[in-house]
Design a protein that fits this description.
about 550 residues; ten-stranded mixed β-sheet; four-stranded antiparallel β-sheet; about 20% helix
């Protein structure tokens, strides 16, 4: 990566109309824990992001876009499945790395032999599966967080009669819901999001039959890193590790892009780990650019916590700012690669974040104003936890436009399908929110009647409901044809934190541990004034939406209002 300058790395790319061209390529860049106000184009004053800002100038910037959930794994599940987290299987960071560390697993270093999160439902389609079936080449680089992997049994999969993973056998198998079995042709990154806590890991996961001859998901050992103690030891010698995972993942993504041609369309899902939470990175010119700029006496106190795997370095504000700018350089190099290969005119690129900002590892959202003057952070359904930067750039998108269309991650499945032109109208309808009779939904062992969703006949289980509405008309400047949501919905049950959110127009319901709060975002964007007592009918209406949209989950129990 060129770190000698902090200037735009790409020039204007020629954009052509969609009509008459082959199916367009799609690149979805989702970073980790970037707040609504972390980018220049969203008002950030202290951190330089020229490439992403340029994307906004040449594309469409959304002001009211939302993550699928205020925490990582369920937000990614919402994107992949086209479901909100009242219907989706994953509603929290349910982990599978908790067995004891195995000593001397990598040289003198200990590590977990089972890693990952609760598997996605094998009876429900996800985006890469749909696009691979239509002839798209698919690649994913960064966090997976949709299943667990066993170092001892990388190609052994225990499954139940219905085709789902038998999670009770995690110590003797890997889950079926891994990139190599869910429509991904090439994968590189940490399957487990906990493994991504450290930027200098013992290994990364890889599946690349074309480039490396892999037959299943493997571990690529960081041979130079394991010469030094791991972050979980608390040793300062950890600083000697030279293999920086964020750069390695990005370079692999660029290598994969180099293999793509104009002959076959491709879908690239780049789930970069920056800027989540370990404030430690190569001491290069990007870090040096911010060194000494921010007052150290205002930084949060944080020391290395071996349990969290976050290294506690110094100069935290400079480290965080450099992580955002480094990510911006990655985006610039992706767009430059598209230009060099002549692919920019037929590629949709989306940049976003998986949820709001965090305070982990010594990060300080309030210092940079990085919540964009919104209340709340990660793990909260206040606006700061779920409203995220969202920029679309590509063929057919009106240049330099700002949209206040309300969307959430579960809208991306039907949007990608419609934009690609590879799917029939019937297929798009089957994978979108529809209204009609109230079918019986059997989900996670719960049978209940729902008032609105599509139970598509797609050869999948009865749990194949979809909550998304394509915003392709908005993307192509046809707002009059854009269908809108009656409301957006979120819920999360994670580590004892139980939150629910509903947005209906300007009205916003926040539920925390079963307690309700009602706000009007038009007059109170910071959600300071609870209007429950003044508008009991509206409160009751939104609570009713919660009870209709929520399906019980034994894995993720939650207190309803």
């Amino acid at each position: 990566m060129n770190t000698k300058r902090l200037l735009p790395l790409f020039g204007s790319l020629p954009l052509v109309a969609l009509a008459g061209s082959r199916h367009p390529n799609i690149i979805y860049i989702m970073c980790d824990d970037m707040g609504y106000g972390d980018l220049g184009c969203y008002g950030q004053k202290y951190i330089e992001t020229p490439n992403i800002d340029r994307m906004a100038e040449e594309g469409m910037r959304f002001t009211d876009a939302y993550a699928g959930c205020p925490v990582s794994a369920p937000s990614r599940c919402s994107f992949m499945t086209g479901q909100h987290t009242g219907h989706a299987k994953i509603r929290g960071n349910r982990e599978y790395w908790g067995q004891a560390l195995r000593q001397n697993m990598f040289g003198a270093n200990a590590d977990y032999y089972v890693i990952g999160q609760e598997p996605y439902d094998m009876t429900h389609p996800i985006i890469p599966e749909l696009f691979k079936a239509k002839g798209y080449r698919t690649g994913m680089f960064g966090k997976w967080a949709g299943g667990y992997w066993n170092y001892d049994y990388p190609d052994t999969y225990a499954k139940l009669p219905d085709g789902n993973t038998d999670t009770s056998r995690s110590r003797e198998s890997s889950s079926l819901s891994l990139p190599n079995l869910r429509g991904i042709d090439c994968y590189y990154g940490p399957v487990c999001q906990f493994q991504a806590h450290t930027y200098y890991p013992n290994f990364l996961n890889r599946y690349d039959p074309e480039g490396r001859g892999d037959t299943h998901l493997v571990a690529e050992v960081m041979e130079e890193n394991i010469k030094y103690p791991g972050v979980n030891t608390g040793s300062k010698e950890y600083e000697g590790r030279p293999q920086y995972s964020a750069d390695l993942i990005h370079r692999y993504a660029l290598e994969w892009l180099d293999r793509q041609t104009k002959d076959e369309p491709f879908l690239g899902i780049f789930t970069y780990t920056l800027p989540h939470a370990e404030l430690w990175q190569p001491n290069d010119s990007i870090v040096e650019h911010y060194h000494g700029v921010f007052p150290a006496d205002g930084e949060r106190s944080y020391k290395t916590n071996p349990w969290s795997w976050y290294y506690g370095g110094d100069d935290k504000h400079a480290q965080f700012a450099a992580m955002i700018t480094r990510l911006d350089c990655y985006v610039g190099e992706i767009l430059e690669k598209l230009k060099d290969k002549g692919l920019g005119g037929n590629t949709l690129v989306i940049f976003t974040s998986d949820n709001g900002p965090h305070e982990e590892g010594g990060a300080d959202p309030s210092f940079f104003g990085r919540d964009g003057k919104l209340r709340g952070i990660k793990r909260s359904t206040y606006e700061g936890g779920i409203r995220i930067p969202f920029i679309c750039w590509g063929a057919g998108i009106p240049k330099g436009t700002v949209s206040n269309h309300q969307l959430a991650f579960y809208d991306l499945m039907p949007t990608f399908m419609e934009y690609s032109g590879a799917f029939s109208k019937k297929e798009i309808r089957e994978h979108s929110l529809t209204t009609g009779p109230s079918p019986k939904l059997s989900l996670l062992g719960c049978s209940c009647t729902k008032a609105r969703f599509s139970c598509a006949e797609v050869g999948r289980g009865a749990g194949s409901v979809f909550d998304g509405i394509s915003f392709c008309p908005t993307l192509l400047g046809k707002d009059r044809k854009q269908r809108k949501h009656d409301f957006l919905y979120w819920e999360m049950s994670d580590g004892g934190t139980e939150v629910i959110g509903v947005r209906q127009g300007d009205w916003k319901l926040v539920v925390s541990q079963g307690k309700t709060f009602l706000y009007n975002l038009k007059t109170d964007i910071h959600e300071d004034y609870d209007l429950s007592a003044m508008y009991p009918d509206k409160l009751s209406e939104l609570i009713g939406i919660v009870h209709r949209e929520h399906t019980d989950s034994p894995l993720f129990p939650i207190t309803l209002p």
